[in-house]
Write a structure and sequence with these properties.
Number of helices: 1
Bound molecules: zinc ion
Radius of gyration: 11 Å
Distance between the termini: 32 Å
CATH class: Mainly Beta
Number of strands: 3
Strand content: 5-15%
Shape: globular
Strand order of the largest sheet: 2-1-3
Length: about 80
């Protein structure tokens, strides 16, 4: 898989931060949040599915942005 150059660093960060499996991710385009505790009813992703385990073809359920556009949300 190839990423746009400026997305590579973000993706690396996302993978590292998502290692515990329950990090939330925010769409960099429309700010939609993917919460692993809730899954994604649009894509029929079961609750408890970590972002890293989403299907390769998963896109933002709101704006259809690619996975690479998502940024990890700091746990607050
Ligand atoms: Zn979006």
């Amino acid at each position: 898989m190839r990423f746009p150059e400026n997305a590579f660093e973000r993706t690396g960060t996302a993978v590292a931060a998502g290692a515990d499996g329950m990090a939330r991710f925010e769409c960099g385009v429309c700010w939609q949040v993917y919460d692993p505790a809730e899954g994604d009813p649009v894509w029929q992703v079961a609750p408890g599915t970590p972002f890293a385990a989403l299907p390769e073809h998963w896109t933002c359920p709101n704006c259809e942005a690619a996975r690479e556009r998502f940024l990890v949300l700091p746990d607050v």
